[in-house]
Amino acid sequence: MTMTTWCALALVLSLTHPSTPQSTVSKAQSDADLKELSSYTLTMETLNKVDRAMRAAVVEIKKDPKFIEAKKIEAELEALKKKEEPTESDDKRVEALERRLDALDDDGMNMSDAQTIGQMAAKVEKYPPMMAGLRSAGLTAREYAKFMMAVLQAGLTAGLQKSGALKEIPPGTNPANVKFMLDHEADFQKMQAAWAGLEK
User: Fold this and answer.
1) Can you give the C-alpha Rg of the chain in angstroms?
2) Strand, coil or helix: what is 180?
3) What distance in Å separates the CA atoms of residue 48 and residue 40, rounded to the nearest whole number?
4) How many domains are contained in the chain?
5) Of 197, 26, 4, which Cα lies nearest the Cα of 115?
6) Residue 169 gets which letter from DSSP?
7) Which tens digits make up the pLDDT trace of 124-157?
8) Pair 191, 56: CB distance under 8 Å
9) What are phi and psi of 83, to 5 degrees?
10) By residue range, what is the domain housing residue 170?
11) How many other C-beta atoms can be found within 10 angstroms of the C-beta atom of residue 49?
12) Containing H/E element for 37?
């Protein structure tokens, strides 16, 4: 199970664009996060730790009774939706299963309302499978959150630079991290593909 990319990207944008409305985060907190990210340097050592943590977390998630229940529901939903002529009873069953699946998803590591590195770390700390994975790799929740934020911040900048849409690195983004993302693009793609495979 990986962090929802769009939620994380939205968090990066809220940190890197001060004009973004922030209902619960002060400018001082936003500036502090930007300062912390700008002085943080991505390394292969930490990337490998995160890789180990994600793999270990997936193993833990697969033991979770809620995960097992969700997989059974998904299989039943797939079978019901393949029916050529579903009955009214089938439709009601689909609705009930989808509601239950949504409830199970809400128990996961939802980052949608995290607006700072600290808030993201706090969300991670409340999700036992992820914490078990991080502990096995020798990482704290804050280290993980900071790493992921730096990856997304630098990755977004690197992507815009490659496309020609961005000429200069924005303030608050560590240039070394942008270079790291460009130099290790293949490594990230390989790891993401491996994580996706583990989730299945």
Assistant:
1) 19
2) helix
3) 17
4) 1
5) 26
6) P
7) 998 898 999 999 999 999 999 999 889 988 988 9
8) no
9) -65, 135
10) 50-199
11) 19
12) helix 27-38
- Element (DSSP H or E) covering residue 157: helix 141-163
d(CA 77, CA 91): 10
Could you give the C-alpha distances from 83 to 65, 72, 78, 188, in angstroms and in order?
Answer: 28, 17, 9, 39
Handedness of CA 109, 115, 121, 125 (dihedral sign): negative
Q: pTM of this prediction?
A: 0.75
The reply to whether 147 falls in a domain is: yes
CB 41 within 8 A of CB 176: yes
Residue 10 domain flag: no
The dihedral through the CA atoms of 21, 22, 28, 30 has a sign that is negative
Residue with tokens 């583990």: 198
Which residue in the block uniquely carries the two structure tokens 């229940």? 69
Predicted confidence pLDDT, tens digits, the chain (200 residues)? 333 333 333 333 333 333 334 445 677 778 888 889 999 999 999 999 999 998 998 888 888 888 899 889 999 999 999 999 999 999 999 999 999 988 887 666 666 677 789 988 998 998 898 999 999 999 999 999 999 889 988 988 988 888 888 888 888 899 999 999 999 988 888 888 887 777 66
Domain membership of residue 8 (yes or no) is: no
Does residue 5 lie within any of the structural domains?
A: no
Question: Is 178:38 a contact under the CB 8 Å cutoff?
Answer: no
